[in-house]
Structure formats: structure tokens, C-alpha cells
Structure prediction request, 461 residues.
Amino acid sequence: MATFLRGVTMSLAVAMLLVGLSSCCVAAEDSGLPWKIGLARKDITPQQPIWLAGYASRNKPSEGVLAPLYATALAIEDSQGNRGVLITADVIGFRKEVAEAAARAIMEKTGLAREQILFNWSHTHTGPVIGLSRPAGYSMGEEDQKVVETYTRGLIAQYADLAAEAIADLKPARLAWGVGVVHFPMNRREFTETGVRLGVNPRGYADRSVPVLKITDEKDQLRAVLFGCACHNTTLTGQHYVISGDYAGFAKAFIEEKLPGVMALFMIGCGGDANPYPRGEIEHAKQHGQELGTEVCRVVGEKLSPVSGPLKTALAEVELPLLPPPDREKLESMAKGPSHLSETAKRMIETLQRGESPPSHYKAPIAVWQFGNDLTLVAISGEVVSDFVPLIENEIGHVRLWIAGYCNEVFGYLPSAKVIREGGYETRGVGTLGFFAPEAEKVVVETVRKLSEQVGRPPLP
Prediction:
């Protein structure tokens, strides 16, 4: 009898424990909040001198650290269990080989599907060269190349860890969003009697909007801020050899100083043809960072639009058409011409000399994430020029829309048909494979429309 009573007592205790655990789980699930958000961050500052990316004029590795570099992860889960992970980082960007390796590492560690993973890079030009093989355009030696490869492999592993840590950190949350404006992004396509050059074009279009996603916890305490700006991180030039995140890094630091305990994440927009103005000095980078950070803090303090679920994610690999290769004589001339054309021309000549045909298309990723009926995030790969902002707005509507470039892969510039027609630096081609055809614009815009329909973006009124 005593044995029986002890068994009953233990069963009751176990049952009460299970009920208690069940109640806790239900309370977490039924918190009344539409989202769970997880955050993670890693310091990715190189621990030794490394070749810096973005300017071919540099002739030696980095010399010290002006400001640390970070990679940050934002994990999102809606009430139905749909998930996505966004990883941002203070680096120039990943080409296809590195991006695919990072995605595979994350999928293996977390079980996420590829369309649930989104990369965005700030494109700082005072961050390390990234690559698993010798990158074109840099005159580094073999030992410097080994440093780059070692750093890149470590960064890929850190990406997988970041995604897993952010998912493990998922907590009930609310999302809200709004848009501000800054004035330092400047169209850099300066028109001259001899063509378009890199310069300053005050009358040219630049996207100066500052989209802001506010993340609060179940007590309405601010937890994180994701914000964007459509401008190259090129305030610092090829004369600078100190590591930093440029204006975006200073903006994040400013926000986190003004909002203690908050994590700031930066997502660059379609700024392929926009530079900060003025530029060239460290103080300019700090000035732009403060302007951007101040505007983000202002927007966060306003009444923002709530963002509900569900979360739907879609990704497509699209074939972007390239121009037919010019004849040999034209290629030889281009190879001796402006540097922005010569590298691609030389590689095309080498391809022809091997008896091979240059490719007719380049496969590039495009993604769309839909947050209920409240927000559509369009994520385009490459250094996307600003023309794509109005092009996409006209295709799928202007409202509840966030358009980002430099997402999932940075293969080079993605010019509009207008930019291709006008010429200039942004028409330099994709890697060393060829030059984009004007029809690539239409493929991008139509793909965004189809993906938007797929994830349920409300149709145009």
C-alpha cells in the first residue's frame, strides 16, 4: 500500500510539473505578441594586418583599427513558426563562392532553408578583402592572400554561429516601422563633355530615405533597431589604411550610445551610384554617421506603423542577360582603355583565347520577404544603382516598401538600362565575365513583381 501511495504521489508531482511547464510554454506562445525576435553579434575585426577592399590603388595591408567591425544576426519567427534570419556585416560583400559557402554552413547548423536566410553587407571600403581564391584587382602577394583566405573561412564559420545564436535567443517581440531622411548621399555620376565620370552630381537622383524597423520586447522596451541608407560606404578613400565600418559603423555606434542596451543593425540600400558628400576625411565619416544615427533615433521616437505577421520568404536565382562579346579589335581597345572596363575586357580576351565563349547570362539571387500586409522587404543582389528604387515602386507600389541592395551576393554593379545607355563606372561589368545588357533591368523588376505576388504583397489599388 505504501509503495502504491508513493507511486501516486510521484505521479501527481510529475503531472503538476508537466502542467506547470505546459502553462509556461502556453504563456510564452500566447504572450499576445505577433513575433519572436532573436539577436546575436560578433566582433569580426581582423586580428592582424590585412589587405583592405574597395580601392585598387592601395599597395599594402591595413595599418591599425579606427573602429571595430561587427557582424549581427536578426532571427524572426511569427506566430505560425515561420522563420527567417538576416545577417548584416561591416565588410565589402561576398561573391558567389563565399556566399554559397556561408549559406550552406548556416543551413547545416540550423536546418533553415535557403530562402529563409538573407545576407546584407555594408560595403565598407575600410574593411578586409573577402575571398577564398585570389581576388581580381588587388596586387597583394601570396602571404597576404593567405591572410585573406584564413579570415574569410573564419567569417563563414562565424556566420553559422551567429544564425544559431540568434535563433536560440528568440523572445516575444513587437515590430514597427517608419522612414526618415538624410542628405549626405550624393549621386556620383558626373556628366562631362567626354562622358560620365565618378564625381559629384547634385542634380542626379539618390535615394535619401532612411527605413527603420523598431523591435521592442513584451514590456515595450526597445531591444534593437534595423535601419538603412542607400549610399556607398566610401567616405574614406584609398589613402586610408585604418579599419572601420565608415559612416554606417559610426551610425551604429552613435545609436547604441544614445539608446543604451539597444543593438543597431545596418542594411544598405540601392546606393551603387551614390557616394557620401563631403568625403575624404575621417571627420566626414563621423559626421555622416552622426547625421544618420540622429535621424534613426528621431524616427524611433515617433509613432510608427505596427508590423504584423505572418512572415513569408521567397528567393529566386534569375538569369540576367549579358551583352554579346565585342569583336576582338574592340576588346583589345577596351583592354587598353579606362580601368573600369579594361579588367573585364582582358578576362574576356583570355576566355576567347582558350577557345571558349563568354557566358550569355549571369545567375543572380533576388529575394522578397513579406511581413503580413504591413511591410515588403525587397532584397536585390549586386551594387544596385538608385534607378531601381522608382522602377520597383512603379511596378509593385510605393507604400509599405523597403528596397535593399547588396543582398545575398555582391558580384559587381547592377546598372539600370538608363545607366548602361549613358555609360560610366557602374557599367564595368559583372566580375570578369561580361557586361550587362539593358534587358537585365526588366528581368530584375519582373522577378521582384512575381516574388511579391508569391509572398502575398497586397496588389496595387
